[in-house]
């Protein structure tokens, strides 16, 4: 309604300016015709610019779909589809990358906004796999990796949960042992110190609880 009234006002102004003595009527009429063509087009452009409906911005890390996301592993980038990626790296040899725990959310940096924590496992399905916890924060509408914590290295042991988030802490349960199996687990707590996730206190050793 405001734009329509504005356009009517512009029309009236043009009509006033277009009044000329009879001898100047023909050139004035040409100028008026051009003005009537230009003003509506400009008004339409302004209306589109002011009422444009772009995609909403990402303001919460929970809006990021980490199960369908690209990750760098060993110098390459892989994109998960529903939390999983696989490829044949040689005849009869398959390599897999999957999200095996999380994501979990909580304010881990003290800025009042949540971070995301989850675990990626990678390797050949018929062999032992490695796993790591990754922690992402949101900056400028984009998910940014701020820390990677090893969970297990080539150990044949699978846990129901490798990480937890509680009271601003990241709690990691690691698996130690040999490729043939687990020797023991360790639970370690980490807190953000402004630049890295630093260990809080000593780790707690527990018996293996492989699934």
The parts where pLDDT drops under 50 for at least 5 residues are: 1-55
List the quaternary state of the chains.
single chain
Instruction: Please trace the helix and strand order, writing H or E for each element.
Output: HHEEEEEEEEEEE
Number of domains: 2
Shape type: flat
Q: Give the neighbour order of strands across the main sheet.
A: 3-4-5-6-7
Helical amount among residues, as a percent range? 10-25%
Largest sheet: 5 strands, antiparallel
Q: For the residues shown, what is the average pLDDT?
A: 80
Structural class: alpha+beta
- Beta-strand percentage range: over 45%
Radius of gyration: 31 Å
Counting DSSP H or I runs of 4 or more residues, the number of helices is 2
- How many runs of DSSP E, i.e. beta strands? 11
Would you spell out the secondary-structure blueprint of this structure?
Layout: H1 2-18, H2 25-50, E1 70-73, E2 76-79, E3 84-90, E4 93-106, E5 115-123, E6 129-139, E7 142-155, E8 163-166, E9 169-178, E10 181-192, E11 197-206
Antiparallel strand pairs: 1-2, 3-4, 4-5, 5-6, 6-7, 8-9, 9-10, 10-11
Helix pairs in contact: 1-2
If you had to describe this structure to a student in words, what would you say it looks like?
- The structure is a single chain.
- The protein is of the alpha+beta class.
- It has 2 domains: 49 residues; 146 residues, no CATH class.
- It is built from 2 helices and 11 strands, in the order H-H-E-E-E-E-E-E-E-E-E-E-E.
- The strands form 3 sheets. The protein has a 5-stranded antiparallel β-sheet with strand order 3-4-5-6-7, with no helix packed on it.
- Strand 3 and strand 4 form a beta hairpin.
- Helix 1 packs antiparallel against helix 2.
- It is flat, with a radius of gyration of 31 Å.
- The N and C termini lie far apart (67 Å).
- The N terminus is likely disordered.
